[in-house]
């Protein structure tokens, strides 16, 4: 049984979103990237969603889980296998795949690699068929839970990772190009949160805020850590005070801590970081640089001194994290109690040489086109650049008796550094097994293990 959004309401929602997107695109094209939907219109949340949030709360991911949802993609097969193998003994798995053939493909690969699909305590892995399935499932929705055990799903506004704002910046001064660029984005996954709610028999909480689950970090006790630069890229022209009011209407949230920026290695979509350094990122997802280990302990990504001295991108990230550390050091939780901050070393900067090409197959992470950059940057075909991976140990997955972290030893991070990271996580999450999985294919596109999972609270 479910009271998730019925088909008629889903249609109305889609029409409303298209109208809102049209207004936003017109504003972006006509007035630049700093403008967007008027704040008074932005603040009108769906009343059904607001009412549905009474009594629900977002859990901390360090709390017990009922299941971990994930998907499968042949391009990320190694990470999928590693994740499933590490998680399966500790938590039931629910795979969201496009169709029966995708399920068959996933099962064959997982079983061939010896991944147990019978699950803990006799709960076998489940496969859900959903045509809108996305590999980075974390970004599509966030689960909530009511005291009586009822599951909820938060449905945020979907902008394909802020494509309209990226287009407005890339094509500043050319309104027609802004609209054309934005229209090429895939907005179909706007309905994926609704579909997940239906599959899970969950109640839906709808919000006017545009964000992805990878940019939503809560301690389960009413406190949210938000990246201001990231949320502004998803909600152009909306003042921070308006954003905060909308966030605090979400189930159980009572306080927001605002941090100014995320890692330099995680720019907004395909973009220049500095000089020849570029990356394909999210624009500041919190799950790359700041995470809760418990209700009052915050983990903060921290570039190592040697990297800061040798690498300009590491220096940029250190400066940003120093500002974040100062804010967190003064901050309190929703009850007014101080937070404890633990610095987690970052991996060695991961980079590779890429060459700009007019005919690049831009579905590939290593293929780059001059069209990704504004004319003022002077990028040209044949130019060599340095692509950075959005690599961070903080893109980890906590799940009952295990913590799954990305593995950077195979990619040049010194063993003693990764051992230091292991020790930090063993102290922060006592009595849990610490496992590592190779996540490099996801890192090149701004993702990682956490991005590829969705935590269902117990």
Jot down its keywords:
four-stranded mixed beta sheet; alpha/beta; globular; 458 residues; 14 helices; disordered N terminus; 20 strands
Describe the protein's architecture and organization.
With 458 residues, the protein is of the alpha/beta class. It has helices at residues 7-31, 39-42, 47-52, 77-87, 100-112, 163-170, 175-183, 192-200, 228-234, 240-247, 305-310, 312-330, 415-428, 440-443; strands spanning 65-70, 93-97, 126-129, 142-145, 151-157, 203-210, 217-218, 223-227, 255-259, 268-274, 277-282, 290-294, 297-302, 340-345, 351-355, 384-388, 397-399, 402-406, 433-437, 453-457. The longest helix has 25 residues, at 7-31. The protein is globular, with a radius of gyration of 21 Å.
Radius of gyration: 21 Å
- What structural category characterises the helix and strand content? alpha/beta
Report the β-strand fraction as a percent range: 15-25%
Strand elements, count: 20
For the sheet with most strands, the description reads:
4 strands, mixed
Task: Break the fold down into its secondary structure elements and pairings.
Layout: H1 7-31, H2 39-42, H3 47-52, E1 65-70, H4 77-87, E2 93-97, H5 100-112, E3 126-129, E4 142-145, E5 151-157, H6 163-170, H7 175-183, H8 192-200, E6 203-210, E7 217-218, E8 223-227, H9 228-234, H10 240-247, E9 255-259, E10 268-274, E11 277-282, E12 290-294, E13 297-302, H11 305-310, H12 312-330, E14 340-345, E15 351-355, E16 384-388, E17 397-399, E18 402-406, H13 415-428, E19 433-437, H14 440-443, E20 453-457
Helix pairs in contact: 1-7, 6-7
């Amino acid at each position: 049984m479910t009271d998730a959004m019925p088909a008629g309401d889903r249609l109305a929602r889609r029409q409303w979103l298209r109208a809102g997107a049209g207004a936003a695109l017109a504003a972006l094209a006509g007035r630049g990237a700093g403008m967007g939907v008027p704040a008074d219109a932005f603040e009108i949340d769906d009343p059904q969603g607001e009412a549905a949030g009474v009594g629900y709360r977002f859990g901390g991911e360090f709390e017990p889980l009922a299941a971990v949802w994930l998907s499968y993609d042949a391009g990320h097969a190694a990470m999928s296998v590693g994740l499933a193998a590490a998680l399966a003994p500790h938590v039931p798995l629910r795979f969201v795949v496009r169709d029966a053939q995708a399920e068959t493909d996933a099962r064959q690969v997982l079983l061939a690699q010896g991944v147990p699909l019978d699950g803990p305590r006799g709960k076998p892995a489940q496969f859900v068929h959903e045509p809108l399935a996305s590999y980075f499932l974390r970004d599509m929705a966030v689960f909530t839970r009511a005291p009586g055990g009822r599951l909820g799903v938060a449905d945020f506004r979907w902008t394909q990772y802020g494509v309209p704002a990226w287009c407005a910046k890339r094509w500043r001064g050319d309104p027609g190009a802004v609209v054309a660029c934005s229209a090429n984005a895939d907005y179909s996954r706007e309905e994926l949160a609704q579909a997940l709610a239906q599959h899970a028999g969950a109640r839906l909480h709808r919000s006017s805020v545009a964000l992805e689950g990878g940019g939503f970090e809560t301690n389960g006790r009413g406190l949210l850590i938000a990246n201001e630069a990231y949320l502004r890229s998803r909600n152009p022209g909306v003042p921070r005070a308006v954003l905060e009011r909308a966030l605090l209407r979400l189930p159980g949230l009572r306080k927001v801590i605002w941090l100014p920026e995320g890692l330099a290695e995680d720019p907004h979509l395909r973009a220049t970081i500095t000089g020849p350094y570029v990356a394909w990122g999210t624009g500041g997802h919190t799950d790359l640089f700041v995470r809760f280990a418990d209700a009052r302990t915050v983990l903060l990504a921290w570039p190592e001194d040697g990297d800061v001295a040798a690498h300009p991108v590491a220096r940029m990230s250190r400066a940003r994290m120093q500002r974040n550390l100062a804010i967190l050091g003064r901050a309190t939780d929703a009850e007014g109690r101080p937070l404890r901050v633990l610095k987690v070393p970052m991996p060695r900067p991961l980079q590779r040489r890429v060459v700009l090409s007019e005919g690049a197959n831009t579905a590939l992470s290593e293929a780059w086109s001059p069209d990704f950059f504004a004319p003022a940057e002077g990028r040209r075909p044949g130019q060599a650049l340095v692509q950075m991976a959005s690599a961070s140990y903080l893109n980890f997955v906590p799940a009952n008796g295990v913590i799954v972290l990305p593995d950077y030893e195979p990619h040049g991070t010194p063993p003693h550094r990764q051992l230091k990271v292991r020790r930090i996580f063993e102290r922060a999450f006592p009595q849990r097994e610490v496992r590592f999985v190779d996540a490099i294919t996801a890192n090149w596109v701004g993702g990682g293990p956490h991005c590829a999972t969705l935590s269902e609270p117990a």
